[in-house]
Each structure stands twice: as C-alpha cells, then as structure tokens.
Amino acid sequence: MLKAKVHVTLKNGVLDPQGKAIGNALSALGFNGVDNVRQGKFIELDLDETDPAAAEARVKDMCEKLLANTVIENYRIDIAG
Prior knowledge:
There is one protein chain. By secondary structure, this protein is α+β, with helices and mostly antiparallel strands. It has helices at residues 17-28, 52-67; strands spanning 2-10, 40-47, 73-80. The chain has a single domain (2-80), classed as 2-Layer Sandwich (Mth169, Chain: A), CATH 3.30.1280.10. A 3-stranded antiparallel sheet has the order 2-1-3, with helices on one face.
C-alpha cells in the first residue's frame, strides 16, 4: 500500500481572495512582514498499489479529472511507502 500526497495551488496570476483574506487577518493579528499569501488544498490518499510509478500515474489521472482544476490550479504529487 502506498500513500499519495497531493498539493493543489492556484497558478501564478490567478486572483486568490482567500489568500488575501488570510493575509489581512494575519496583519490584523500583528503578524507583520507577511506578503503574497496564497491558499491551496492538501489531499492524502491511501492507494492499494505497490508500484510507485503506477501509483503516480493513477493519482495524476485523478488530479486531471477531479482533484484539481487544471485551468487555474497546479498540483504536485508525492508518493510514499
């Protein structure tokens, strides 16, 4: 069994209102010097797979079809045993 970790983030140039709100809240709480906050999502999957290359290909297909909106988002996949 392998574990996949998927990090999904907005592409550069795409407006991020949630990131902006987080940045404003941090500033209001006194955390100064924080700029360009970007918000994303993190997904963990347990896969009934033993081959890391096959697992990565399978998760890539999941990202392309559901987990990421590839028009506005990038994703990174990490496979671990």
